[in-house]
Task: inverse folding
């Protein structure tokens, strides 16, 4: 009897140890999938439940947001709005309505520093061209008269957008990646993924706890502007939520010794002139962080920090 008890005890201990070992192995294993969306590299990593189908579905959902917001695709919601005449309600997807509503709120709270109707100016700067040159001041001034989010009337109930003037155009580049990362996270959670990290070109959204760190927090590296990728100035630890960076180094060109970057001050039509090169915002949602990072970059440190406080967000500035 005593022998049987000893054997049973040994078996239980062995089973527990095996369980721990397998648990440990699982915790450290990660599955990763990458796709090129929103003109940038997008990565989804999942831990514990390494579900390839879930990642595929999350990317499908993100690709749908890409399609809705694509400035260059003729059948995107962005193009439908941009090509529409004034005073004609345009039906759009509910994702587009969500983005437009948040963009409108941040536009108001940032006193116009964040403005999706920046499109005529952001396109004029031609950051995607191979050898862009700064546009003429007269051109900027003409197109500046078309900028102002009060020219967009959003009806959330009917899911329509109406422009007050023909020339109003939108550019959702400052919100779409963060919003898409939130949607991808939602899909993964619905598929029972308990732990994961979504990184859409520096727009990070986390799911659950990090099984790879002792304190279960996610470690987010803040890229040193203009240093090689992966060279971090600071590591921010977050339990859950999102972290998004807006940086001059993400898209810019140089002309006659001057650097021109893609974050435009809607008051001037020129790249926002600041004494830092990046702004990172940490908060609950990717879409909110995306809007706030762009807005705060334009606003500057003092008023930017106040806006972050309003949303319970942390903000980091890097030179
Ligand atoms: P982000 O990288 O999120 O800061 O977004 C920058 C992109 O959003 C630019 O490439 C433009 O397409 C657009 N954009 C530039 N300036 C602004 C602004 N002040 N408000 C909203 N969108 C902007
Ligand atoms: Mg942004």
Result:
């Amino acid at each position: 009897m005593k022998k049987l008890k000893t054997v049973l005890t040994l078996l239980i201990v062995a089973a527990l140890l095996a369980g721990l070992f397998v648990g440990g192995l699982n915790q450290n294993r990660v599955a990763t999938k990458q796709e090129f969306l929103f003109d940038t590299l997008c990565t989804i990593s999942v831990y514990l439940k390494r579900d390839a189908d879930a990642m595929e579905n999350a990317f499908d959902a993100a690709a749908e947001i890409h399609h809705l917001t694509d400035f260059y695709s003729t059948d995107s919601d962005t193009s439908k709005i941009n090509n529409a005449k004034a005073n004609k309600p345009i039906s759009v997807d509910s994702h587009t309505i969500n983005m437009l509503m948040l963009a409108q709120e941040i536009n108001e709270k940032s006193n116009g520093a964040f403005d999706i109707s920046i499109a005529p100016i952001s396109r004029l700067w031609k950051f995607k061209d191979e050898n862009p040159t700064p546009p003429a001041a007269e051109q900027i001034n003409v197109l500046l008269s078309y900028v102002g989010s009060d020219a967009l009337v959003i009806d959330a109930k009917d899911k329509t957008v109406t422009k007050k003037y023909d020339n109003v155009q939108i550019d959702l580049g400052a919100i779409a990646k963060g919003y898409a990362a939130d949607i991808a996270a939602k899909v993964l959670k619905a598929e029972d993924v308990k732990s994961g990290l979504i990184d859409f070109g520096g727009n990070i959204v986390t799911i659950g706890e990090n099984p790879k760190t002792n304190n279960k927090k996610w470690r987010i590296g803040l890229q040193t502007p203009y240093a090689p990728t992966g060279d971090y100035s600071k590591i921010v630890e977050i339990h859950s939520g999102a972290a998004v960076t807006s940086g001059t180094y993400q898209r810019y060109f140089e002309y006659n010794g001057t650097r021109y970057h893609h974050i435009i001050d809607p008051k001037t039509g020129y790249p926002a002139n600041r004494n830092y090169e990046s702004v990172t915002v940490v908060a609950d949602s990717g879409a909110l962080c995306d809007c706030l990072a762009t807005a705060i970059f334009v606003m500057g440190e003092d008023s930017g920090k106040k806006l972050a406080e309003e949303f319970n967000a942390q903000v980091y500035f890097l030179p």
About this structure: The chain is about 40% helix and 25% strand. The two ends are 73 Å apart (CA to CA). Residues 11-25 have pLDDT under 50 and may be disordered.
